[in-house]
Design a protein that fits this description.
Layout (H helix, E strand, L loop, with lengths): L2 H8 L5 H12 L11 E7 L7 H21 L8 E7 L15 H5 L20 H15 L5 E4 H7 L3 H9 L1 H8 L5 H4 L5 E3 L13 E4 L4 E5 L5 E5 L5 E3 L1 H12 L3 E5 L3 H14 L5 E5 L2 E2 L16 H7 L2 H9 L6 E2 L5 H15 L4 H4 L3 H7 L20 H11 L5 H8 L12 H18 L10 H15 L7 H13 L8 H13 L7 H8 L1 H13 L2
Parallel strand pairs: 1-2, 1-9, 2-3, 9-10, 11-12
Antiparallel strand pairs: 4-8, 5-6, 6-7
Helix pairs in contact: 1-3, 2-3, 7-10, 8-11, 10-11, 13-14, 17-19, 20-21, 20-24, 21-23, 23-24
């Protein structure tokens, strides 16, 4: 695949990262800004809490669009045609103390102060609460190999980097009020100001009316908490902006070209876009993505505790399967809970296995192609994923572990894998070994407590006896596919009275494995071993 072939195919591809990148290319048909500077992608982060799965998905999805844009213009990551900024809004005032933090009393005495000016409650040697969480963010992003630049709001405000943009906000103060006031309740209108001064006496971020004294000099006037009238500079970290104004100012000051956000920020995107136009710049290309739901279809909420964390996903699945699940349908609401992990793992590997055999247009629509490029993966001319195939499915691992019961551990699973996998050694199959550990954990937490093998009905028992007879006569070297054929043939025999093959396989799953769903039985029997499978049948027949 040549770079020209890639560019041509990418520009007509319907995968959502390419569709988003096309929107950006319409703004910059030459693939660069008029001044030649890189196209800037941004993701935002509020450092009052630790990074979570929402942080991961936003940075990943933005990276996917970034790489798609590079493909459209024939650039490589090392060419420097694009930048990704992870921006921390650590000048925000602490409105309430999260319940899960240490030193509650200390934090309570620092309410309304910028997060970057509150001591670190974790006492990890960081200069502030925000510095601790910012370090956690960077470690989190580095853990997954993201290519980004970190920018803290406090550094930009305190250093004066935002001063020119703040002066522009002050010049356009009335225009911004005209945009924002109609969106507010009457009570809020009375005190609303685009600029939030920081009290010289308490250090609090104040929500008070502000008078612009001299926009060019950056001077403002307001009433402090004790009622005294203060005239001071808004520059150099002596103020910050209201959220929607701050977002627009950041776009203006940094020259942000692309940013995505959750559905809950739809109104913020609308108002911030109007504000940045008032400041004199076009808004970035934006994308609104849907939020995740829990297993009951309810919105995930920290206060409800119904979320599903990255560490939980990685306990049961792989990083690649998480990326695969996040890739699909960002504009559709999706459930996020443990129950979706096994399917996501197996779906990822199915797409990965197909990749090298697909024509170019299909490759560019394959999530694995995008995920492989996310952090500077393969070059355009390479054939990504060639020969990639997981020897067994995650679902099959779960079924094996389920029948092993209390004796299931990593060593036991690998000993059975030797029946099915050539060179069955964790060192030779590290990705499979990750899934073995994940499947053991998933079985322990979700499968084992629900397994219940039922007794077979009379016709099912007869079919099981027939299957046992077939297995007794099999050559130990019989392939999984040939075993599957034998299982099929038994289910088709009229004497056993199955209305469909589905009923036969359902009977096998429920009587032998104790679950309503299961694997291809030929594969399972080959993996678990013919003699062990016959023992399962014997146990089932004893219950009949």
């Amino acid at each position: 695949m040549s770079m020209n072939d890639l560019i041509a195919a990418a520009r007509v591809n319907k995968a959502w990262p390419f569709q988003e990148a096309q929107r950006l290319l319409k703004r910059y048909p030459d693939g660069a800004k008029p001044d030649g500077s890189p196209i800037l992608f941004e993701t935002g982060y509020g450092p009052s809490g630790l990074p979570h799965i929402g942080t991961f998905q936003e940075v990943l999805r933005t990276t996917l669009v970034r790489r798609a844009f590079e493909a459209l213009i024939g650039a490589k990551p090392e060419d420097g045609k694009t930048r990704l900024v992870a921006f921390s809004d650590d000048m925000d005032g602490l409105r309430k103390v999260p319940d899960n933090l240490p030193q509650q009393e200390m934090l309570a005495t620092h309410l309304h102060m910028p997060l970057s000016r509150i001591p670190d409650p974790f006492e990890k040697g960081h200069e502030s609460f925000a510095a601790h969480n910012n370090a956690m963010l960077r470690a989190f992003l580095d853990r997954f190999g993201f290519d980004y630049e970190f920018i803290a709001s406090s550094d930009m405000y305190n250093s004066g980097h935002f001063d020119d943009a703040l002066k522009q906000v002050m010049r356009k103060n009335q225009d911004i009020l005209d945009i924002m006031l109609p969106t507010l309740r009457e009570e809020r209108r009375q005190t609303y100001s685009p600029i939030l001064p920081i009290s010289p006496s308490t250090g609090h971020v104040l929500q008070v009316p502000v008078e612009i004294v001299d926009a060019e000099a950056g001077l403002i006037r307001f009433a402090d908490e004790d009622g005294s009238v203060i005239e001071q500079s808004a520059l150099g970290g002596m103020s910050k902006l209201q959220w929607k104004v701050d977002w627009a100012m950041r776009w203006y000051a940094l020259g942000v070209d692309y940013e995505m956000s959750g559905k809950d920020l739809t109104d913020s995107v609308t108002q911030s876009s109007k504000i940045v136009r008032a400041l004199g710049s076009p808004p970035p290309v934006t994308m609104i993505y849907e939020l995740y739901l829990d297993a009951n279809g309810e919105k995930i909420s920290k206060s409800k505790g119904n979320g599903f964390t990255i560490d939980e996903w990685l306990t049961y699945g792989s990083e690649e399967s998480l990326g695969f699940y996040i890739f699909n349908n960002p504009k559709s609401a999706k459930q996020l809970h443990a129950g979706i992990v096994p399917r996501a793992v197996d779906d990822y590997w199915q797409f990965r296995e197909r990749l090298s055999e697909q024509p170019l247009d299909k490759q560019l629509g394959n999530p694995v192609w995008h995920l492989a490029r996310a952090n500077g993966g393969f070059e355009a001319e390479e054939a990504p994923g060639a020969g990639d195939k997981l020897p067994v499915t995650y679902g099959l691992l779960l079924n094996l572990i389920g029948v092993l019961g209390a004796g299931a551990d990593r060593e036991a699973v690998w000993s059975y894998l030797a029946n099915y996998v050539e060179d069955a050694d964790p060192a030779r199959h590290p990705e499979l070994d990750v899934l073995v550990s994940g499947a053991l954990a998933y079985n322990r937490d979700f499968v084992a407590p629900t397994l219940k093998k039922r007794a077979p009905a009379a016709n099912e028992a007869a079919a099981l006896q027939a299957l046992d007879s077939v297995l007794a006569g099999l050559d130990p070297a019989t392939s999984a596919e040939d075993i599957q054929t034998e299982v099929y043939e038994i289910g088709k025999r009229e004497e056993f009275g199955f209305e469909s093959l589905r009923d036969w396989f359902k009977a096998l799953y429920e009587t032998l494995l104790g679950s309503e769903q299961g694997p291809r039985m030929g594969s399972f029997i080959a993996l678990y071993g013919v003699e062990n499978s016959r023992k399962l049948i014997a146990e089932a027949l004893e219950r009949s």
